[in-house]
Automatic annotation (TrEMBL):
Pfam family, one: YacG
Protein name: DNA gyrase inhibitor YacG
GO biological process, one term: regulation of DNA-templated transcription
Top-level taxon: Bacteria
A molecular function (GO) term: zinc ion binding
Length: 61
């Protein structure tokens, strides 16, 4: 199995889906997209699912 000499395919910006991404702001195409994505996280528009410690049936120690 030999290595592929071609460069990896460019993927689109993680926020606006435009191409090409800029290495300095990877995985985004610009500082603007990186900042808008961060604002979504800070504003709690995005959230990771998980169990709340308050939802646990176990007694706190």
């Amino acid at each position: 199995m030999s290595a592929d000499p071609r460069p990896p395919a460019s993927r689109a910006c993680a926020y606006c889906n435009r191409q090409p991404r800029v290495a300095a702001f990877d995985p985004f195409c610009s500082k603007g997209c990186a900042d808008r994505d961060l604002l979504h996280w800070l504003g709690e528009s995005y959230a990771l699912q998980g169990n709340s410690p308050l939802d646990s049936d176990e007694d706190p120690v």
